[in-house]
Write a structure and sequence with these properties.
Blueprint lengths: L7 E7 L7 H15 L3 E7 L1 H10 L2 H7 L2 E4 L5
Parallel strand pairs: 1-2, 2-3
Length: 77
């Protein structure tokens, strides 16, 4: 018999625009989750452009340790 263990976590949506850098807010929030809510996974939902900006602006060892899952979903605004 397999045990169905529920996992808890935080899901963040970050789609940057000309005025707000939402990806950095999500990165800061995910770092706090990892530091203070150690039993939670983090998931980032973003688009290709915002994720590329994250990879260019923050070293990979920092954002790789903050987000357990990244979902790339390009939406039409």
């Amino acid at each position: 018999m397999t045990e169905n263990k529920e996992e808890s976590g935080i899901c963040m949506f970050a789609y940057n625009n000309e005025k707000m850098d939402y990806i950095k807010f999500a990165h800061i929030a995910a770092a706090y989750v990892k530091r203070n809510m150690k039993n939670n996974k983090t998931c980032l939902i973003t688009d290709n452009g915002t994720y590329a900006y994250l990879k260019d602006s923050i070293p990979s060892e920092f954002h790789d340790s903050c987000f357990d899952h990244v979902v790339i979903q390009d939406v039409e605004h």
